[in-house]
Design brief:
Blueprint (H helix, E strand, L loop, with lengths): L3 E3 L9 E4 L1 H10 L7 E5 L4 E9 L5 E10 L7 E5 L3 H13 L4 E6 L10 H15 L6 E7 H4 L7 E4 L18 E4 L7 H9 L2 E4 L8 H20 L6
Parallel strand pairs: 1-3, 6-7, 6-10, 7-8, 9-10, 9-11
Antiparallel strand pairs: 2-5, 3-4, 4-5
Helix pairs in contact: 2-3, 2-6
């Protein structure tokens, strides 16, 4: 498995950078990297860099930045996430990042149990997912918004992953369907919420005959949306 760390860019070839905090812990304590080890550095922009560990503890961990490699462009893929409980939220965000979501909108629904994690917690979740997947850029995370306000936006529509639909059919989507999916919190959407989403242009689709956890529904829904739109949009664009 490739050892990756996140260091905000832009990065310059031949320079040395210090790795601290969660990234240092992951590199030194989890991956047990030592001086001379080869690592991959994600800059959060458009590239990944080859790098070498110069030194680790007892002083700060230092990397020497090597050549950059452009990464494939990630096409827009938006998730509207009905605020679940904190543990489900963490897992759902991680899954969304690993599947290449470029935007996550936190939507407050009638059955949402509480607020969103703090910005620091969300940033840690996103960085860990980037290390795992190699995602070149973090998604934008929009602050919580009430569902009624979200559907009032001019540019809406997409796919409604609706737990009320049990028949697992193919996701044949109308032409021009936005690359957006909305997934509800634990307990799902109320009938009024589902109606509001459908009226706003969301196409209801099933995730199968079983009741999924919120975080599982996010992964299943994003995967199926990407597959359904791939013939017309392409899953990944070349550099």
């Amino acid at each position: 498995m490739t050892t990756r760390v996140f260091v905000p860019g832009p990065l310059v070839v031949g320079t040395e950078v210090t790795v601290t905090g969660d990234e240092e812990h992951y590199l030194v304590r989890v991956r047990r990297a030592r001086a001379g080890a080869a690592v991959e550095v994600l800059d959060g922009l458009t590239a990944t860099h080859d790098a070498v560990v110069v030194r680790t503890a007892p002083g700060p961990t230092v990397l020497r930045i090597g050549s950059a490699r452009a990464l494939p462009k990630v096409p827009p893929l938006s998730l509207w996430l009905g605020l679940p409980d904190p543990s489900a939220m963490a897992a759902a965000l991680a899954g969304a990042c690993e599947l290449g979501a470029t935007q996550v909108v936190l939507v407050r629904c009638e059955r949402s149990p509480g607020g969103a994690p703090g910005d620091d917690r969300i940033a840690r979740i996103v960085r860990a997912a980037m290390r795992q997947s190699g995602l070149p850029q973090p998604p934008s995370i929009d602050p919580p918004i009430a569902l009624r306000d979200a559907v009032a936006r001019a540019d809406v529509g997409g796919v409604l992953a609706w737990e009320a639909l049990r028949e697992d059919t193919a996701w044949a989507l109308p032409g021009g369907t936005p690359r957006r999916i909305v997934v509800g919190p634990e307990g799902g959407f109320t009938s009024a919420e589902a109606t509001a989403l459908i009226d706003a242009g969301f196409v209801p689709r099933s995730l199968g005959p079983w009741t999924l956890r919120c975080e599982t529904a996010v992964v299943a829904g994003l995967s199926r949306l990407r597959a359904a739109l791939a013939p017309s949009h392409g899953a990944v664009e070349p550099p």
